[in-house]
Structures are given as C-alpha cells and as structure tokens.
Amino acid sequence: MNLKYLFLTVILCVTYSCNNDDSDFELVQVAVPEVMSKTDFRNSVHIKSAQQIEEAGKIYAYQDYIFIGDKGGVHVIDNSNPENPYAKAFIEIPKNEDISVKDNFLYADSATDLLVFDISDINAIAIIERLEDVFDVYNFGIPLQAEVVDYQGFDDQNSVIVGWTVTLERRKKQNDDLLIDVVFDNNTGGFNTAESAVGIGGSLARFQIVSDYLYTVGSQKMTIFNIQNLETPVLENTQYVGWNIETMFQADNFLYLGSTNGMFIYALENPSLPEFVSEFIHWEGCDPVVVDGHYAYLTLRGGNACGQQESVLEVIDIADRSNPILAGRYTLENPYGLGFQGNTLYVCDGTAGLKLFDISNPLNVKLNGSIEGIQTTDVIPLQNSLILIGNNTLYQYRYLENNLELISSFSI
User: Fold this and answer.
1) Domain ranges of the chain
2) Distance between CA atoms of residues 64 and 77, nearest Å
3) Is 17 helix (H, G, I), strand (E, B) or coil?
4) Cα gap 289→247, rounded to integer Å
5) What is the pLDDT of residues 211-225, one digit of tens each?
6) Pairing mode, if any, of strands 65-70 and 354-358?
7) What is the DSSP letter of 175?
8) Which pairs with CB-CB distance under 8 Å and at least 24 residues apart come from 63-68?
9) End-to-end CA distance of the chain
10) Which DSSP helix (H) or strand (E) runs through 219?
C-alpha cells in the first residue's frame, strides 16, 4: 500500500476512535411506537359476537350484566342467572381502559376519545357518539423492559400508538432519559342506591359517575363531562390533580384518587370543578382505595414496577378530610383491588387468594378468613352477591356469616 494512503487511514481511524469513545455509548432497550392513523383507528370500533378473552382486566356490574375489560375492548356477560353466566357479546374498542354506565348508556375511553354506546337493547348495541381528542394522555402501555422511548417520527395529531417494538441498540448516553408512562384509568365500595340506574365498578377503575357528571382520571389530570343529556356528553373541564394517579373512588360527595405516592381528596361542592382538599402521602406503591364512612382503606403492592418491596393494607382516618391520618397497617402478600359490604372488607391478594377482614372496628382490623387456591385481581361486593375476577375467571359468591359460598366460576 502507498505510504501516503496508509498514513491517511491511520489518521482517520484514530480520529474516529477519539470522537466515538465507547465510554460515551451504552446498549439500551429502545421502545419504538407502532402507530395507526386516527382515521383507521376510529373505524375500528365494532360490536361482535362473544370472543375468547385474552387478558381479563377490570370488571363492571350493571343490572343483569357484567362487563369485563380486555386488551381490545369489553366482554358483555349475561348474568341474569348467576349460576350459569354466559358471554353475550364483545364490544371491540381499541385502547380502552375504562367504562361507566348510566341508564343504558355506556361510556368508554378509546385512547384520546370518549365513546357513548346505547345498550338499551343488549342484542343491538350501537355507538351513538364520539368526542374526539378529549383526553390528551392515554395508556401508551410502554413495555416494562424499555429503558428509552423513541418518539421520533410519531405524529400525535394524526396517529395513535397501538403497540411497541423493543430492540437492543447502541446509543449515546443521555443524562436524562425521560420515560413517560401516562395511563388513562369507577368504583363504589357498596351498592349504589341512587334512583338512576348507575353501574358499579371495581376499585381499580378510573371512571366515576356522580349525578349528572362523569369524572375520569389519567396519570395527572381529571377530565370532567356533563352527562345531563346522556346521549351527548359535554366536556366541561380538565384540571391537574396530582402525579401518577391510578384509581378513583367516590363517596359522600368527595372523590378519592389513589396514586403511587398517596391519596388525593377532592370535594364536589362545585361538581364541574372539583376542589383539592388534602393529600395523604405514603411510600411509593400501586394504590387502589375505597372509603367507608370516616375511614379509607387502600392497598400498596410491592415487588414490581410500583417501586416498593413491602405489600400492605393501610387504614386512613379521614374524619377530618383536611388532615387524613394513618390509623393502621397490615401485611399482605400481593394485593390488588378491594371492596366492602357491611362490616367486611374484601381484599384481592393476588396469588394468595381473597382475604376477608372484619372492619367493624376500623382501629382494630381483623382477618376473618380467606379463600385460597384462586388468583384474584379485583372485586365488586354487590348488595346480594360478590363478583371477583382473576386469571381470566369470573367468580361469584353469596354472602354467609363471616364467609362466602361459591355460586359459580366462569372461565371465558
């Protein structure tokens, strides 16, 4: 080789090496969004015959029906005979997180949109309204293994994220790689006795109907809709309410928001603009909450992405809502949703089954019993029976004194 060219090659190699020090680079798991145009996305809502469930999510009870969330929509279960429930239909709703029902109108989120369905004839469910772009954040579902999210090329005005591709890439180190995990997530612990027919959701839900308003919470914001005219909801307000909000519960004209860092309390004196009352801070953990009188009960699940190792049930004294105080803490194994009926608090303890706690004295909560051998994620204690979801199975129980009796188990 000509010495002149050899010398030039060495110079180039040295220069490239100096400018590309391996210490400046690292191998990282990069998540790239898979997108769909909003036009195609909004044309993807369909009413289908009963489908096999992929991954059971939240549960919701309304009259003789149970709705079960799934990855691509909502399963409709006919529960007119609790001993023999059967799948009736599947409402295909892409990127759906939650539903709420009032007087035969079902409200559901679909990424950035709010949909309204007429379910007065369950054999002819129909979508009748769509409010577009009312949610500015929704469940991107960022893969847990992702260390960096690459949004380059994503047009949020015309596209929707419908999935992710994760690859291992060599990238220049960043001082701050910001992973944005924004989640758009109703629950009443006891039976709803309002004159209007309003359904009941589990404690993991983020939708609540109170009188003429539908309240929805995302990771940081609450979006409020006036549903006085049920067929045509109106976006009333959007407000910042906290950080990492996961769940919402309503009781006694207050909203209780469960976050990974605590519980936020909002008053509904002005229903169109809830007012912040107070915040109860705890260590970081997944946090659904229910409220009974002067006490709130919440579970913290550790050993996962929520941030802590310890899993507990906490009892919070909210007699003075402006100053909530920790009243008790009880160790659990792997808690998820919870709900109460009478003096019994039912806690889904994941693979450890269902725990039954006596809360007749909230300052001295006692374990009354448990149902083992089942996996549990959320529960709705109805007036006459208890429904429970876990591991793609819907369980129903009748109440006994300090115990439960199985009515049916339905694998979808």
Assistant:
1) 31-169+182-411
2) 9
3) helix
4) 7
5) 999 999 988 899 999
6) unpaired
7) S
8) 63/197, 63/199, 65/122, 66/387, 66/394, 67/99, 67/101, 67/106, 67/199, 68/389, 68/394, 68/412
9) 73
10) none
Rounded-to-integer distance, Cα 264 and Cα 281, Å: 9
Q: Which of 38-65 are b and which e, b meaning 16 or more Cβ less than 10 Å from the residue's Cβ?
A: beebbebbebeeebebeebbbbbbbeeb
Tokens representing 146 are 């992702």
| Angstrom distance (rounded) from CA 59 to CA 202 | 6
Q: What tokens were used for 63?
A: 């009259």
| Model confidence band, residue 123 (pLDDT cutoffs 50, 70, 90) | very high
φ and ψ of 173, to 5 deg: -65, 145
Name the band, by pLDDT with cuts 50, 70 and 90, for residue 196. Answer: low
Chain centroid offset of residue 229 CA: 26
Closest to 378 (Cα-Cα) out of 185, 108, 213: 185
Q: Which amino acid is at 371?
A: I
What size, in residues, is the chain?
412
Amino acid at 91: I
Report for 95-104, 236-245, 255-264: range of highest mean pLDDT: 95-104
DSSP code of residue 320: S
CATH of 31-169+182-411, one of 2.130.10.10, 3.40.1170.60, 3.40.630.30, 3.60.15.10: 2.130.10.10
- What pTM value is reported for the model? 0.85
Compute the average pLDDT of residues 298-311.
Answer: 69
Kind and range of the H or E element at 341? strand 338-341
Segment among 22-26, 180-184, 357-361, 376-380 with least mean pLDDT: 180-184
β 289-292/393-400 pair status: unpaired
CA distance 35 to 22: 33
CA distance 222 to 240: 6
Per-residue pLDDT tens for 27-83? 888 888 888 888 998 999 999 999 999 888 899 999 999 999 998 899 999 999 999
